[in-house]
Amino acid sequence: xxxxxxxMVHEKEMTYQDFSTRTHAPSSPNHCVSVHVxxxxxLLAGYSQDCTLRLFASSPRGGGSQEKxxxxxxxxxxxxxxxxxxxxxxxxSVEIDEDYICCLCHVEKQDLGLDSYNLVxxxxxxxxLSGRDDVTVLTGEDLNHxxxxxxxxxxNYLLSDDYVEEKLLPLTGWLHVGGDYEEVFVFVSxxxxxxxxxRFMVEVSISIPDILHEFDNDDLTVVCRxxxxxxxxxGAILWLGDTKPSFDPAVLNAFEDMVISSLWGAGAxxxxxxxxxxxxxxxxxxxxxxxxxxxxxxxxxEKYLGPDQDILKKMIVFDGWQYGSTVGPLVxxxxxxxxxxxxxxxxxxxxxxxxxxxKSLISFHPQHSICxxxxxxxxxxxxxxxxxxxxxxxxxxxxxxxxTFVDAQEDTTTERxxxxxxxxxxxxxxxxxxxxxxxxxxxxxxxxSLIGNxxxxxxxxxxxxxxxxxxxxxxxxxxxxxSWRGITMTGxxxxxxxxxKGTLGEPSSPPSSAGxxxxxGRTKRRAKKDEFARGMRQNxx
Length: 541
Known about the structure:
single chain, 541 residues, mainly beta, five-stranded antiparallel beta sheet, 7 helices
């Protein structure tokens, strides 16, 4: 309401910032790719096109008011190629741990060279001390940071080893017969996972040109897919392992994104957690689980999601459903919590090459018995819904963000005043005859029960960037961003903000704009009067 329709909203239970009302703010086609709770009352958001990291805080508005305000404390650009036309950079994903910020950046080359992926690593303290409320450009002289070319790091790590594993024989053989090293393609899944202690995990696929189609440069042969753990402390690879230890032809697609979900900090150290990282894809029923022992050694385990696959196969064979998505690439959302692995599946029914109906299933797999049919639970989201994202709330609840499709003739909310919905648009875009809303469903993980649902955005477009990104923490801070339009935060920490200064050296609240304009006006009038008076005295002399 406040941002899209320019209505006044009291900021007692929440606070927000509308980017259309200020300078140096993100604008279209820029959009938010990641949002994280930095600390109580603070959110860190990463934006794609301008490569900025922005830190927002909730603080008292001042003047005796009980309302809050959302302020931008730090804005830092990490675009290392902004002054050259030969390369362009955008942020794909951002992760943080207790000490570091890690950004996955896609670097596109304007010439015929292959695109590359970089990791930009910087300390949280360096980020806070170097940034300002306007855009600060990251340079080597200004900030202590590291930039790692993922392709070079992975290939050097694999090819420098005296022992060459069997999976790499096609790569080494191709290079031995004269293959060009520059044509070895390393694709990085567009997701990061924090692993604690300055360690961050990425997933890559390594491909070479298909020798059977030498005249078609678009055909690639996948050599292998790897999990790669980088360390911000040493600026290099700590560990490298197979995404799928067993042969799984379903994931031999050079450009298929894998999904990574991890636990770190208190979550990873909990005695109730068996696994600390999970990797999966929509095309494979096999999930890879990673476990770290007390000596820092990693063990990879594979699980076949049999009960889950049995349900989906029946829907495909007998009911005419199929895997599908109407928003971006086909990705299976999921989340690894202390107690469960939670996976979402979107099924669609297609008639005459048009999606007529969607069905979303949420499956809960306890960590200690992922393949056990007796402990497996599947829940269907009510209505024509498409699950998109998940976020854990206080380790006991999961927020599931879905797009819901409602018949246009059933729309009775566009003329409703108030309503409490965020970012409602005046024009209802639709796919066909459907109106698209974005809803959040909150489930209690232990009982697998729905405890509430609410609308986040009404009448959104079909663009995936218009889907809100959520982040929550055990410190009772919840934040959400919507593309380039704005940011909001709520929670007990935000509601309790009254009369106290924010952390990170946040300055006190500025005076109101009305008072500021009044003082400036008086100053200008005094200056003109003094100058005129001096001229009169000189003429009289």
